[in-house]
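This part of the workshop introduces the protein records we will be handling. Each record describes a single protein and holds just a pair of labelled lines. Instead of coordinates, the fold is spelled out as a row of discrete tokens. To make this concrete, we reproduce a full record directly below:
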Amino acid sequence: STSLDGEGTTSRTTTLTSTLAARVIGVMPNGNLIVEAVKTLGINSENQTVSVRGVVRPVDLATDNTVSADRLADVEVKVNGRGVVNDVVRRPNFLYRLLLGLLPF
């Protein structure tokens, strides 16, 4: 007979400051640009993928072809992680749990 009573928590506070290279994925009828940027970072033995998508007015572009994040409209920001913390959160698949229940060791 085997039993397991486990409990765990995780907490993380992160401040990310980065420069992303974006590409124009569309132009709206009024001339505004739809831009998208994706960057993958390695943090705490995990790969964090940050993606940003939004609308930029051409007048907000600086002379060096950059734009500040506070000038983006309709912003979508996604942060997805893969690694040790994310792997523990997912429940093992059915076959693995079945084998753990059947095997005596």
The chain has a mean pLDDT of 80. The longest helix spans residues 94-102. The two ends are 10 Å apart (CA to CA). DSSP finds two helices and four strands in the chain.
